[in-house]
């Protein structure tokens, strides 16, 4: 039911949001880097940019996270992510009395109330607008629709109630900014560690934009063939989602072991995509792994940063378009470098593949 919401025509409408927020990001990075010879951690900037993008595209509202770092929703989202990972790796927190005694439950409830109240208010406002207009574009503006607008339009056909709308929007809000910010950050980190590949990206982007500061369009995105290879290779070596779970629908055998129906499997792109039998020198960052010739040699499921099959990531085209837009703006404005080697920044597999040291990059404004 939701798949049409990610048709390429819808993504085309979102491109203006990607472009606008990416420009705010590079302006903020330029201010932070001005007169500063030291590396700056770009990860918080990227996360705020991704949060603004998903707020506008998923809910049709803005929190201005890039300019308003103290917005309650921005802080609550960050806290919820921290609490979720803490809960996952500390089994004693699964006991309710301990959650209350340690204050975990109070922190969780406080932040949850902020997040759900914000979503509730947006849903109520959007629903009221939809009902008052009779479901039509009353002002004739034919303006772009957010994901929430589409959900409201299809709610009767799909039998959706308020709680369904809230859960879907909250899912996209969380999964739609943490994952893309990690993807953008790791791609920039890989390029900063490999100036030869960064140079080829600069050359490609200079050919497309001719050193102008004009907006990045959907047509421009399609022309970024080499940058796409670089993004895909970064997602191979450091997938945004390091692991995900699946339930076995039918009993089957693998390597002599019977896996019964109903059991859970943990699938790890972080291991699958770093298999030395499939990817020789797997720790080496090499965008040419994604040339057409190399892709044809591999099994289709040897590379699954967005999962695969009927339960794959519904937002993968959205993510790639956003990441290419934001990365292209950063590379149009800056040359990137780092004092650390690629592998010195160890990956921390939380809900997303987080860098242990952030993404400390030196940014030099390009001529």
TrEMBL record:
Native source organism of the sequence: Caenorhabditis japonica
A GO MF label: heme binding
Cofactor: heme
Organism superkingdom: Eukaryota
Keyword line: Heme, Iron, Metal-binding, Monooxygenase, Oxidoreductase
Annotated heme binding sites: 313
UniProt family annotation: Belongs to the cytochrome P450 family.
Pfam family, one: p450
Protein name: Cytochrome P450
The keyword Heme appears for this protein: yes
